[in-house]
Amino acid sequence: MKNSFLFNILLFTCFIFSISCTSNSNGKPSAFSQKDTTPDTQLRPDLSLRGSFSSQSKMKFDSTLLSSFFKQYSKFKSFEKLVYQFYRSRKFAFAWFDENGLIEHAGNLYNKINQVEEEGLHTPILYHERFHALMDGDVPGISLDQPNTEVELLLTLQYFCYAQSVWTGLNDAVLKDLKWDLPRKKLSYDAILDSLLQGPSDVFMQNEPVYIQYRLLKSWLKKLRSQEQAGGWPEIKYPKGKQYKLKDSSLILIKIRERLFLTEDLLNNNNQAVFDASLLQGVKNFQQRHGYHESGIITDKLIDEMNVSVTSRIRQIIINMERCRWLPVRLRGNYFVINIPEFRFHAFENDRYAWSMKVVVGKQLNQTAVFNGKLKFVVFSPYWNIPPGIMRKEILPALRRDKMYLRKHNMEWHGRSIRQKPGSQNALGLVKFLFPNSHNIYMHDTPSKTLFEQDDRAFSHGCIRIEQPKKLAQYVLRDQPEWTEPRIDSAMLAGKELFVAIKNPTPVYIAYFTTWVDSAGKLNFRKDIYKRDLKLEEAIFLRSN
Fold first, then answer.
1. DSSP states of 16-45 as a string?
2. Fewer CB within a 10 Å sphere, N or C end of the chain?
């Protein structure tokens, strides 16, 4: 289904971008089809793009002034080494001044910092009163028409603070506490600054090193904040247990139309109290964006979703913008992405969306971890080696109640543990996929196919059940011609466990995004099934105070 995040989650594309839409089997749009076309040189100084800054090297400041500056502005102390590194490479030449005074890039940075709330942040500007006074020319004895060391260094430090907050986000310790184990991007702020200053001032900081979803969410953040200022969307009061479908009539449908029109699910609002074809499409659009089966039927549950306030949706966007800050700007080659709240698996070839399928993830008490690995093995007709926790809490108590329990469930003792034999009723189905990791999580088939028809698919003990196991087996073995479709069918039904090494192991990224923009430009939301949005919101709030 192409109605999805990643994140590509995921994941991962660019900081200047274009979007190319591909479609999968059911033709729905997905953000995973986004493609980065930006050359790698974007973060490196381009010597053909000389600006007014880069050509000046004669005006310099005394390097000993840095020590006194950091004593006066001690809250910038963590950036001291980085500042020394930046100016040492420039032989302490001014970066923000030339022979005509403050360069245009400085004003662009000043505007960016003053508009930081547009980035979903409320981070206080350090020394904002002094900084504003200097930049507004309100400090007696200091003119912006000639180089000034205090103004110079404050601009550089404000840039580093901005870059850290907007491009990198919360620190590694917080991410660990939030159980986010995906690799995060590493940026060289000083190298980026050097490149930015050498470029034309009219594009200064427009192409920032953030994952593509960040920009898309930022655009929607601005739109929803405008709606919030206009009063948001009204609560829809409805009779419990009532459903509405095509051709029904009710005054409540007028309110529902208004709600769907405000969120662009309905293109035109005719204010009719009749459930007509246009309202049907609007309801399906809303259902698609929120991960529901597109039945076109309005239920209690669906109206509850509509009644989530615009303020709550704004918070959800801000939280997921923060997650976007952590992601690598770009991934290359082939890889797989699983977005837990979306309950979907996505395959990418050469950074381009290829196909996707439904998955079942861990329930609240057995949460699927956020991490990455590399898919290395296909295991046909697998044994299920029952984990100690499941064995202790579920299997042994059942065995004490029923001595025939193991035989009835095709299980056997294996040393001091219990395993389930291969077969159609094996909990792992007919095939599993291993990407070795410390979380002991893998993907596998399942005999419980009906679970894939549910909207919410958090049922497993932590591993990931996949909707199309045979398709994935064919896909990962496509470079091994000996593994034909008949041979794969035979191995899945053989009843004898067989490990097959994958010739070209594929990276797997398991991520957690509850909001994203798909390739059709639609804003998607999913439920915070593990309550991780709340914890991240608290961390963001603490950073902002």
1. S-EE-----TT----GGGEE----GGGGS-
2. C
